[in-house]
Design brief:
Elements lengths: L1 H10 L7 H5 L1 H17 L5 H8 L2 H12 L6 H23 L1 H5 L12 H27 L5 H26 L9 H21 L3 H9 L1 H12 L6 H24 L1
Helix pairs in contact: 1-9, 3-8, 3-9, 4-6, 4-8, 4-12, 5-8, 5-11, 6-11, 6-13, 9-10
């Protein structure tokens, strides 16, 4: 993110006063904190369980925006938001209900266990990320306190600072770390950076609709965990996933009709 931030600023000749790091820090902090909690929790709970729970944050964001700000939504938009949010929550409920059958690893892999200690990580992620996304909506859309480029650079440079602190900590503790051996995490970091770029500009448009739409990426996380991690999915889960995809299509249709 640091590399992209510097490149984006130089190539587009963007002026970036350091005060924006301070202005946007509350949002950056909540995102980075929730991300750290989410990744740490994957040591104890499977991706197909944690992802739908975590991304119920989109519902929290939409509700908070609706409560604190005035919005007029069409019937199609309301229907789509309800379908997507309900699908994400239903997916989390199904994951928990079926945990004893298909969602927990066999006894041979005891690091995965469904308990309060394990579930607290995705729940904390959900709440903190939801608050962060709400703050982002306020900064970028509702009150327009900061521009898209400034928000993007502030977030990426904050992450860059975190990376510098992490590297220093590793060096002080004399723990082994080699960038060339972190290919998979490197690819993940590239995708995360690309996603963040589009995320910021999307949130600045219509946050109350974008928040649940972005949160629906948990559907794709569950599908990919089935394809690549061989985590089993039940027929009901596929039904819910199809429902969420239908909600996304409705949201797209509503935007086309409006324009």
């Amino acid at each position: 993110m640091g590399i992209h931030g510097f490149g984006h600023m130089i190539l587009n000749r963007i002026s970036f006063p350091l005060i924006y790091l301070v202005i946007y820090f509350p949002v950056s902090f909540m995102y980075i904190l929730s991300m750290g909690i989410g990744y740490f929790g994957l040591r104890y709970i499977k991706l197909s369980i944690s992802s739908p729970v975590q991304n119920s944050s989109g519902a929290i964001t939409s509700i908070m925006i609706f409560i604190f700000f005035t919005h007029t939504l069409s019937v199609l938009e309301i229907s789509a938001i309800i379908i997507i949010t309900s699908g994400i929550i239903a997916l989390a409920v199904l994951e928990k209900r079926d945990s004893t059958q298909s969602l927990i690893r066999e006894e041979t892999d005891k690091k995965y266990h469904l308990s309060f200690a394990a579930l607290i990580f995705p729940i904390l992620y959900c709440v903190i990320d939801g608050m962060g996304t709400f703050a982002d909506a306020v900064y970028l859309d509702e009150l327009a306190l900061i521009g898209e480029n400034e928000a993007l650079l502030a977030y990426e440079f904050t992450f860059f600072i975190c990376a510098a602190i992490a590297i220093i900590t590793i060096k002080v503790k004399k723990e082994p770390f080699n960038f060339l051996k972190e290919k998979h995490r490197g690819v993940a970091a590239v995708f995360e950076t690309i996603g963040q770029f589009f995320y910021v500009f999307a949130m600045s448009r219509n946050a109350i609709i974008v928040a649940p739409l972005i949160a629906s990426y948990s559907v794709f996380s569950v599908l990919l965990s089935r394809v690549f991690l061989k985590e089993k999915l039940a027929y009901r889960q596929y039904q819910v996933i199809a429902g969420v995809l239908a909600g996304i299509a409705l949201l797209a249709l509503s935007e086309v009709l409006e324009n």
